[in-house]
Amino acid sequence: MGVRLRLLEDYDGTVYEVELPLTSKVDARQAAEDLGLPGYLDLSDFVLARTVVTLWAALNAPKLDLPPELRKRVGKPMPALLFGGAAVKLHSPTANRAGHALNRRLNDVDFAVRKRDGYPFVKLLLNLGGALGTRYMYFATSGDRWFNALRGGRRYRVHGLSGAEGDGLRASVVDVFCDELPFRHTVKLRGEFEDPAAGLYTIGLEKLLLSKLQFIFGLPREKVELLESSGQGFRVLPYDHLKGMVAVGMELKDMKDVAALLLDHEVGEGPEAINPAALRKLLEGDKPFALTARLNLQNLAERVDVLVKEGLSPSEATNVAAAAEELLKALPPVEKRWTKPWWNVYVETPGLEGVR
Predict the structure, then answer these.
(1) Phi-psi bin for 153: left (phi > 0), alpha (psi -120 to 50), beta?
(2) Prediction pTM value
């Protein structure tokens, strides 16, 4: 009999546990090969390996040993896409390189699916532990179930295993978004589901970049000193028109993710290049989003010192800045100057603990 690891206790007293050692009926490396994913993936990362198997399971759902009532719902493959840090790892060899400053361990992973696949996909997640082994266990807390009921099929939330296998194992939130990513600015997803392999089962390089560059919030000017004292003054964006506030951009982890993408991909045309024309087209009809993306890119280009301090070589940091400058030339100009927030302020996004 194995040892049971306590993951969390729900507010209604329900305790969620998993038995150790974890079990697996699927080889993550083989699943990655079946999906056609690159060989540079660091599948020693517990969360990344779990995620790859989840992508594989969504496409192979009709073949899995699932409860009869669920098998009726998953008669066809369900393409699931990644964004965030896991998607960066799928596209970036550097983000997988042992010891490199841009190889960061994943804390959690979120998925995007078509709205029609949202509920079946979540049901699949909740049955993966039984079908494939406890390494791929997902569960829904009481809070998750309330969250899901109130979102009208647009977004779901469950919990999955994360951390490092062993003493560092824990449960973390897994969000499932349907058709779009409604953050500070919305990234709409359409054709990406038609050929998921073409984008390495992510939302694609350009939209992946935008999902990072959309981050912004307003901070009262009198709190800038606190921001700087916490070592995050580099996040203040070069924008002087907000009334009584400064604009604060990407977190360090997001800057590093963008740096990994820019370091490992040419700016131009091709399946694994960042296409400036495509990026411009995505932003041309959305001036607020274009401004936020420009400010975050400009700030990244001007903060070579931050990248070097984080462990990039001077040449790597310079190359990242040059790629950011090249993309800036392609983005639509924004002449309008807003004195109030131009982004969606009614969304849950990380701010700054103790400062905001």
Answers:
(1) left
(2) 0.95
